């Protein structure tokens, strides 16, 4: 298992699953990708126009049993000319610079729904990221997403829309209006990267999401630092008091899994349970982490 995890750290963006740096801004990519993304980024226009986007799915599992609870859809884009695959961080970076973030946000959600429908065996909740700053009016901007869910026969009750923390969250009033619109249509909501960036505990009280995701860096630090562990425990405690389920991200070792269990997180997600894939594993039995559990 450790060998697989170590190898995943060096996998480039052209692989099926990609790597963690593919979810980060472009400067974390190889020098070749950095030069292209910060130079000629016009390829993204064609990629969006000609539907060169696709989704990979990453499993979210119950922390205690290992049963697969759902999957997060991770957006990827294939370069129309070179065939090279870029991860979310690089795509968002290019879209922001080209002022195509509104189009990207909408197409990413439609792509995730279309591919979910193609994987009938993949059940459970579907987490789809969205950028709150791209939505000026929930009813207008999200109409196409709702229509795409209906067209692909994906029940709205399966969906969880997750606030992406790649930029500062807009006004709390606006974000509450967006999340309330989702709820009125039976869609779940989640706040990402708690413990990092712009996230803070005030969001839990103000927004009352269904799920909160603990940032992977906080999980790593919580293994080593008492203060980080206290911060993690505080997030879990606050969420539990509000009836919010907790998902810990970036789990790569058994030690981190045990830490999350001790802290009381409900679900876990990370490379320990497999890389993002076109067709994610529906069972974790072969990993030996949760022996004897039939997952699906």
Major sheet details = 8 strands, mixed, barrel
Please count the beta strands (DSSP E, at least 2 residues each). 9
Q: Note the overall shape.
A: globular
Mean pLDDT: 79
What portion of residues belong to β-strands? 15-25%
Give the total of domains. Answer: 1
- Please report the number of helical segments: 12
Poorly predicted sequence stretches spanning 5 or more consecutive residues: 1-39, 292-296
Cross-sheet strand order for the largest sheet? 1-2-4-5-6-7-8-9
Helix content: 25-40%
Descriptive report:
This protein has one domain (2-273): Alpha-Beta Barrel (TIM Barrel). The protein has twelve helices and nine strands. The protein has helices at residues 2-8, 31-37, 43-49, 88-98, 101-118, 138-141, 143-151, 172-184, 201-207, 216-222, 226-241, 254-263, and strands spanning 53-62, 68-78, 85-86, 125-130, 159-163, 188-194, 211-214, 245-248, 267-269. An eight-stranded mixed beta barrel has the order 1-2-4-5-6-7-8-9, surrounded by six helices. A hairpin with a 5-residue loop joins β1 (53-62) and β2. The longest helix is centred in the middle third of the chain and has 18 residues, at 101-118. It is globular. Residues 1-39 and 292-296 have low confidence and may be disordered.
